[in-house]
Amino acid sequence: MMNENPYLNDVSRSGPAGISGFMLGAIVGAGVALLFAPAAGGDTRRRLGDTAKKLGSAAKDKLEDGKNTAREYLESGRQAIESGREGFANARQGFERQTAGASSTTPGQTGNRTTPGKTGTPGYTP
Asked: What is the pTM of this model?
């Protein structure tokens, strides 16, 4: 079923936003469950500590995954920039070679062609 608010239909529920929502829900849920569970204070504190350790470990793992993903994106971006620089340098060298080759002939001289406006065989003077 689509949400009636069209702006919420495109919101991604994965990635960092989804993870933080999940973590917040897990913390609130664990806290509520422990508060309403019939147990002695020591048992409740121990379970709270265990839950906090598990959540901290999960958050640490997710943080490391995020760092690794960021490093991969950064390296991919660096490679793309370097590839673009090399392509630009090659195109520039080709342009400079083409420009240097075109400027070696005198203006109006086009090799073996006849001069515009004149008829006859190239190199033949009547």
From this structure: 0.42
